[in-house]
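As agreed, record copied across for absentees:
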Amino acid sequence: MCVAVPMKVIEVSEYSCVAEIDGVRKSASLMMLDGVKPGDYVMIHAGFALERIDPKAAEETLRLMREIVDNEERGA
């Protein structure tokens, strides 16, 4: 299964960014998006920022993903 993860952009260079989730930072290509700036939330998959998303939607998606992981760890 392939999953894109919402991450907050920390740094932007010409064609890439550094984005963060839960203290983990990853580099991603910005070749598919224009106008990304620090503070934006983007969906990251396979090293590419696929789309910019609303911060509220990003936080809700992250909350749901964390809930799924927590349930799996507890065996629920």
